[in-house]
């Protein structure tokens, strides 16, 4: 059996007794008398200390033979942050697992994508999460299935496929083994079932408070691509295309539940797991504000800014290719100018949405579509056109994979080989599209000017200064970018 990650059991029990939401997702409590594991915010009566065992992840609890609580629903907990910032390989592996890397593939192939050995990956998972990669993948499938069973009216066969199970029989066996009920029995016992039409589903995605929803929404709103995205006062909406499924999603905030509500409406088999993983990355739902504050809070430059931005998140990207194209369009132009150019590209090269919804009229073009498109007459310079074409062709051929499997340095090195993409664009793409929290475009004029108190310092000097901000340099960059004085000087218009 895998060795568990050491946790301060007494501290965990105090957090459990206080129902402290800051610890939600940081650990889970296994109750020895009931053989059930819960979140630290579970409303059930607090068990006696001697009956509690605290573990770092839901997968670790299930590996020990515990089943999830039907009351606090561990499947809705924020992502486990034990690995965040301290072990980038685990973070990247988890993102790939969320996208289905171990639904059919092997641990060996996953490790190869990360550039490490399978044994090393296993040791890292046991150290940080208390369970093997296969156990974590199995747990993620099961928790997603549980959420779809209890929160939606999707046919159970579609639930099995959406959760990543390769057969209905395996799905039924896994649910019955862990929950001691069949999927249909779980659904009948759910208070949330029977409330939705089958044409769309809604899910709740938890986060670790605080969460600065207004700041994230404002950032995305200023950069929303016309026809593809629409941001209102309280809502984010967009079209999507994943595999053979197309449709739209709508995201709203539920602060009382410490969660975002995601409505998915689409044609074809709904790729729920992939959509959930992308929404979590888009809104940076797995960030750990306490860990970020511990590093940045005392810094004389970024600390005061962080104090004014409690619950800071780095707005990510639903589609990494889309974000990369948006970043190229944003080079050396204003945010508004880049948004206008992006809208023109979508109108020229995108596919009309099957069912237009208000301002959502198009799907963003695929790499193949953009690589062969005629971009003349859109107001692009020849250099910008060449950069877009080269990036699209590289993504279409597989020469450039905008996925979280490689290291930050390797991702940047791969991107800067393409025409028209420099260090700044590469780091910006790594930060927002690939979810690299330590990406840091040190050449950015705005960052250099703020760091120098109004007079730009050299990129090398900024890099030395930013060493104190690791592994959250991306959050520090966002804090400096969003200062009002940067509107006219920063190259971060993308």
Overview in brief:
The protein has 494 residues and is α+β, with helices and mostly antiparallel strands. The protein has 23 helices and eleven strands.
Describe the overall structure.
It is a single chain. The protein is an alpha+beta fold and 494 residues long. Helix content is 44%, strand content 12%. The protein contains 23 helices and 11 strands. It has helices at 9-17, 58-63, 88-98, 101-104, 107-114, 118-129, 133-151, 156-163, 168-179, 183-188, 213-222, 272-282, 289-296, 303-307, 320-329, 335-349, 367-371, 382-397, 408-415, 423-432, 445-451, 459-466, 473-481, and strands at 28-31, 36-38, 52-55, 67-68, 200-206, 229-231, 235-242, 245-254, 259-267, 351-357, 360-363. The strands form 3 sheets. A 5-stranded antiparallel beta sheet has the order 5-9-8-7-6. Helix 7 runs antiparallel to helix 8. It is globular, with a radius of gyration of 23 Å. The chain starts with 8 loop residues before the first helix and ends in a 13-residue tail after the last helix. The model is unreliable at 1-5, 193-198 and 484-493 (pLDDT under 50).
């Amino acid at each position: 059996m895998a060795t568990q990650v050491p946790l301060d059991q007494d501290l965990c029990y105090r957090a459990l007794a206080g129902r402290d939401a800051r610890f939600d997702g940081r650990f889970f409590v296994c109750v020895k008398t009931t053989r059930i594991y819960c979140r630290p915010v579970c409303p059930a009566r607090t068990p006696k200390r001697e009956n509690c065992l605290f573990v770092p992840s839901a997968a670790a609890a299930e590996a020990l033979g515990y089943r999830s609580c039907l009351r606090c629903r561990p499947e809705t907990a924020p992502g486990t942050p034990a690995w965040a910032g301290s072990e980038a390989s685990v973070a990247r592996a988890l993102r790939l697992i969320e996208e289905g890397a171990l639904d059919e593939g092997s641990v060996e192939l996953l490790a190869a994508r990360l550039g490490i050995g399978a044994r090393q990956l296993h040791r890292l998972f046991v150290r940080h999460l208390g369970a093997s990669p296969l156990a974590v993948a199995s747990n993620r499938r099961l928790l997603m299935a549980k959420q779809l069973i209890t929160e939606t009216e999707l046919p159970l066969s579609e639930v099995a496929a959406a959760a990543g199970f390769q057969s209905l029989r395996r799905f039924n066996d896994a649910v019955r083994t862990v929950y001691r009920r069949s999927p249909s029995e779980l659904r009948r016992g759910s208070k949330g079932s029977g409330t939705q039409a089958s044409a769309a589903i809604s899910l709740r995605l938890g986060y670790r408070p605080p969460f600065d929803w207004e700041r994230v929404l404002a950032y995305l709103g200023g950069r929303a691509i016309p026809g593809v995205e629409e941001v209102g006062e309280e809502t984010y909406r967009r079209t999507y295309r994943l595999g053979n499924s197309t449709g739209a999603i709508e995201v709203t905030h539920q602060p009382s539940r410490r969660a975002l509500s995601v409505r998915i409406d689409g044609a074809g088999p709904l790729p729920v797991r992939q959509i959930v993983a992308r929404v979590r990355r888009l809104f940076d739902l797995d960030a750990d504000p306490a860990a970020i504050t511990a590093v940045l809070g005392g810094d004389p430059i970024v600390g005061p800014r962080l104090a004014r931005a409690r619950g800071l998140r780095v707005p990510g990207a639903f589609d990494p290719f889309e974000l990369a194209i948006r970043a190229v369009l944003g080079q050396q132009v204003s945010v508004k100018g880049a948004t206008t150019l992006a809208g023109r590209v979508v109108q020229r090269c995108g596919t009309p949405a099957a069912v237009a919804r208000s301002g959502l009229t198009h799907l963003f073009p695929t790499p193949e579509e953009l690589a062969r498109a005629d971009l003349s007459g859109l107001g692009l310079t020849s250099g910008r056109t060449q950069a877009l074409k080269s990036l699209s062709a590289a993504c279409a051929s597989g020469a450039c994979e905008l996925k979280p499997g490689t290291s930050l340095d390797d991702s940047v090195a791969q991107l800067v080989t393409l025409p028209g993409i420099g260090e700044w664009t590469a780091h910006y793409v790594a930060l927002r599209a690939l979810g690299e929290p330590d990406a840091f475009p040190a050449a950015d004029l705005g960052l250099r000017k703020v760091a120098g108190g109004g007079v730009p310092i050299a990129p090398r000097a900024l890099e030395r200064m930013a060493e104190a901000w690791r592994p959250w340099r991306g959050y520090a960059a966002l804090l400096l970018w969003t200062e009002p004085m940067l509107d006219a000087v920063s190259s971060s218009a993308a």
